[in-house]
């Protein structure tokens, strides 16, 4: 099809002819296509040296003077000044330059218009794939929490890999992943989406529990534990602590019905071990005694589990029961509380003396740094070891506080020893903090905090609170508040600021309320 004609030269400039390119009037294609054809033809002529300048004919220009053109009036074309301008007392420029009336270089402008029309007609494809929130949440949950931070969900990946995408485990992972991402980003829309996925997961888990072939599987037990994890991440009000035990108590019933199978499977034992730990802590937050069925399950698992954290949680059972009995007024004499607390604290002190040598910190001296309490800080093997050691210290501070409050007034030695222990333990907690907030001490330490660093610092907030709460050293309390505010500002950790404000305004607030507000063991390794 003939698109246009290349007419004879209309003039000669140097050694190059000037051609007049005209489009056929019968051409019936979109204007942008016509312009692109012209541009391609011009490019073709340029590459062969046949074209130096490309001018686009915009039709016959008006010969009126500039003021008349702007005012859209008919000009009488008087060279000395048109009558329209004279009446309006305007400076008349007369006729325009004849060259402007003859030709104008509009190549660049026309090219830009053609390209703009083409862009609108064919919008560019996105350069990167836009992933949905579910996918991004799962990626963050597995990379940052499961593989980077936690030591308690090492069997989840294997179970999730073989699970159905429409099953209850996939739904539970989606719910807890969105809850995790919303807690890290503090996004309300993600919390709403996580709640929707949680409802779906509850329905699917409930359906599986009603089917005998699926109710006692590892996949079902893992789903129940994930739903419990979701509750800890989302419901951080201490008044919800009684509801926290709903899922884990149901999981205990599952384990009780298939105890023999669980003891012969590594994955099952790992899940049961996690269940024992979570329910023990949930009972502590709810001020209730640990059920006998859980104690029996723990005894069955003890022959298969041998590590410091397991020994620690075994002693925590006695602390939880002591606090539950105290809360329910089951003691006749206050001195009985002090005696039991002192006995349990001695067992924790013995546990600390038998910890592996790799759990002993390396002390670094660095005077004059405001992020240090004193002139040194301690570096531990990793955040898991730091967390367990600080957990031991936290419980020991609780026990020694009981000794202080419940020892008879005429008995000075236990009270003195308890006060000394609280002071020493608080200092040990403070020495364990800088390793995670000082830039460069660990590979993940950054400014602002990296995702893993933020999770590591979450495990420090509760121990910092009890150290500042129970210590009589006002300088230590001020340093704790400063450290929490530093985490809040540099790490974008709103919860750290909330705890700092509580410690400043109401330092007598119960530790378990703070622990619940922080998400309990949900953000613990």
Task: Provide an overview of this structure.
This protein has 525 residues and is mainly alpha-helical. The chain folds into four domains: 4-58 and 104-121, no CATH class; 66-98; 133-301, no CATH class; 307-525, no CATH class. The protein is built from 24 helices and six strands. The chain has helices at 31-47, 66-71, 83-87, 98-102, 107-121, 133-146, 156-162, 168-185, 188-209, 212-215, 218-234, 241-257, 259-263, 266-286, 292-301, 308-327, 334-353, 383-406, 412-431, 434-437, 451-470, 474-490, 494-505, 511-517, and strands spanning 4-6, 11-13, 16-18, 21-23, 362-365, 376-379. Helix 18 runs parallel beside helix 21 and helix 21 (451-470) packs parallel to helix 23. The relative contact order is 0.06. The model is unreliable at 1-21 and 23-27 (pLDDT under 50).
How are the secondary structure elements laid out?
Layout: E1 4-6, E2 11-13, E3 16-18, E4 21-23, H1 31-47, H2 66-71, H3 83-87, H4 98-102, H5 107-121, H6 133-146, H7 156-162, H8 168-185, H9 188-209, H10 212-215, H11 218-234, H12 241-257, H13 259-263, H14 266-286, H15 292-301, H16 308-327, H17 334-353, E5 362-365, E6 376-379, H18 383-406, H19 412-431, H20 434-437, H21 451-470, H22 474-490, H23 494-505, H24 511-517
Antiparallel strand pairs: 1-4, 2-3, 5-6
Helix pairs in contact: 1-5, 6-8, 8-9, 8-11, 9-11, 11-12, 11-14, 12-14, 14-15, 14-16, 16-17, 16-18, 17-18, 18-19, 18-21, 19-21, 21-22, 21-23, 22-23
């Amino acid at each position: 099809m003939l698109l246009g004609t290349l007419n004879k030269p209309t003039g000669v400039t140097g050694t190059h002819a000037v051609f007049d390119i005209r489009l056929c009037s019968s051409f019936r294609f979109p204007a942008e296509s016509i312009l692109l054809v012209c541009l391609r033809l011009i490019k073709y002529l340029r590459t062969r040296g046949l074209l130096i300048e490309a001018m686009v004919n915009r039709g016959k220009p008006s010969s009126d003077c500039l003021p008349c053109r702007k005012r859209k009036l008919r000009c009488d074309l008087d060279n000395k000044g048109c009558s329209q301008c004279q009446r309006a007392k305007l400076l008349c420029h007369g006729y325009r330059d004849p060259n402007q009336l003859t030709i104008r270089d509009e190549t660049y402008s026309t090219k830009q218009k053609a390209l703009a029309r083409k862009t609108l007609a064919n919008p560019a494809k996105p350069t990167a794939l836009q992933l949905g929130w579910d996918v991004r949440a799962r990626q963050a949950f597995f990379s940052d929490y499961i593989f980077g931070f936690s030591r308690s969900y090492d069997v989840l990946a294997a179970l999730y890999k073989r699970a159905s995408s429409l099953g209850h485990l996939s739904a539970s992972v989606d719910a807890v992943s969105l809850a995790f991402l919303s807690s890290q980003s503090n996004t309300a829309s993600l919390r709403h989406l996580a709640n929707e996925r949680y409802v779906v997961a509850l329905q699917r888990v409930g359906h599986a529990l009603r089917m005998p072939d699926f109710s006692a599987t590892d996949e079902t037990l893992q789903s129940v534990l994930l739903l419990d994890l979701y509750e800890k991440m989302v419901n951080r009000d201490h008044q919800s602590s009684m509801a926290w035990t709903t899922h884990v108590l149901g999981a205990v019933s599952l384990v009780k019905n298939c105890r023999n199978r669980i003891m012969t499977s590594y994955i099952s034992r790992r899940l049961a071990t996690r269940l024992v730990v979570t329910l023990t802590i949930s009972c502590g937050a709810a001020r209730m005694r640990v059920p006998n069925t859980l104690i029996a399950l723990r005894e069955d698992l003890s022959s298969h589990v041998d590590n410091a954290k397991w020994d620690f949680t075994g002693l925590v059972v006695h602390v939880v029961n002591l606090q539950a009995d105290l809360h329910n007024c089951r003691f006749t004499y206050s001195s009985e509380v002090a005696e039991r607390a002192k006995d349990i604290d001695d067992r924790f002190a013995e546990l600390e003396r038998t910890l592996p040598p790799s759990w002993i910190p390396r002390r670094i001296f660095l005077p004059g740094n405001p992020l240090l309490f004193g002139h040194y800080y301690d570096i531990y093997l990793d955040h898991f070891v730091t967390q367990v050691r600080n957990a031991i210290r936290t419980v020991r501070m609780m026990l020694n506080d009981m000794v202080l409050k419940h020892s008879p007034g005429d008995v000075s030695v236990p009270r003195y020893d308890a006060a000394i222990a609280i002071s020493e333990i608080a200092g040990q907690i403070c020495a364990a903090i800088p390793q995670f907030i000082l830039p460069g001490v660990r590979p993940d330490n950054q400014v602002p905090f990296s995702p893993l660093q933020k999770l590591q610092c979450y495990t420090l907030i509760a121990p910092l609170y009890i150290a500042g709460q129970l210590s009589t050293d006002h300088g230590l309390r001020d340093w704790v508040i400063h450290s929490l505010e530093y985490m809040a500002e540099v790490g974008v950790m709103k919860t750290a600021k909330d705890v700092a404000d509580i410690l400043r305004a109401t330092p007598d607030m119960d530790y378990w309320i703070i622990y619940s507000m922080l998400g309990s063991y949900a953000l613990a390794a």
